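Hi C.,

You asked whether I'd gotten around to modeling the 181-residue construct. I have! Everything is below, sequence then structure, no commentary in between.
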Amino acid sequence: MITTLETGRLVLRPFTGEDLDGLTALHAEESFWWYPLRRGMTAEETGAFLDRMIEHGGAPDRPTFHAVTERGTGALVGWAGLAVPDFLPEILPAVEVGWRLGTGFRGKGYATEAAAATLRWGFEDLGLDEIVSIFEPDNRPSGRVMDRLGFGPGSATTEPGRGHLLLVRRLSAEDWRATPR
């Protein structure tokens, strides 16, 4: 199983089948998937997503997403983790950090906290030399999280499937280690 990561307020753990109801509610929020889908996910799409996450969570040394829960309440707030951005072959080989939180859990610093734990896992435990973060420039909150985490300014590209403008930002292990936390 993938490593469980803990922060002051969050637990990032492997997904389980018991996450389906909470994840379905989060994924149904239009804003959860606005970038890139411009809509919420259906229950069937969420079930397929969860199946993939459970399947990918079987190896401790493989990039994958974690279920993110509040430490105090145990509430599922979203997910964060690492993935290979196969949808953007021009930047491969690469590993991307990503996060998504439900509406009621935004604005609390959870995205930065979860992403920082994920970066630590990627650089320290998985031994990655670089991690990218990819976003649509209109998604300003995600851009601000990347700023706080120390990502460089990025380079523009176009998403092949939907034609959306994307910025690919990079953070090297060397720069990450040099950034005070």
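If it helps when you're writing up: The helical segments are 20-28, 34-37, 43-56, 110-125, 140-149, 173-178.

Thanks,
B.
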